[in-house]
Specification:
With 177 residues, this protein is an alpha+beta fold. The protein has 4 helices and 4 strands. The chain has 2 domains: 47 residues, no CATH class; 99 residues, 3-Layer(aba) Sandwich (Glutaredoxin), CATH 3.40.30.10. It starts with a helix and ends with a helix.
Amino acid sequence: MEKSIKTKKKNKINYSTGEQAEVKNFIIVIIVVLLCVVGIYFLTRIFVTKDLFTHESPKQEDTLPVEVNYDVAMVGTIMNRPYDEYYVAVYDTTGKNNYDMASIVSTYKGKKKLHIYRVDLNEHLNKEYYKPEEVNTKATGVEDFKFGDVTLLRIKKGKITKYITEIDAIKKELDIQ
């Protein structure tokens, strides 16, 4: 009887279809691709970033803190500042009256009756409004602005109430001696 059991085991043949062979080959390809990806990952960590065998924390890049200066405005935003009434000092920071206007603005900020914004006509977006030969003191909106070397605007509820273009008159308006 033992002999008949052994004979049955020997006669058992494995049959595999073409689909099974394709699935087997597919699984082998997937395993090879995964091994290649893992190998590339570790080679990159060893040779490129060189952080695989180090126990240091990753380097922190030196970053500068971002500072937003809310006292600087662009010509396009002069009329819509968040205060009901404020001043806007418009001048070229590279021009001949730069130091006078910077001094006037900083002195006024010390007194700070109304908020004062500074607009630099040397900035790229503001250069088109710098027209010292065609100053428009009757401007009512951004589209009408044509500034000279120095200008002080007093804005009240979104409208220009004063348009001053002389240093002495600006000092008098801001009560600076």
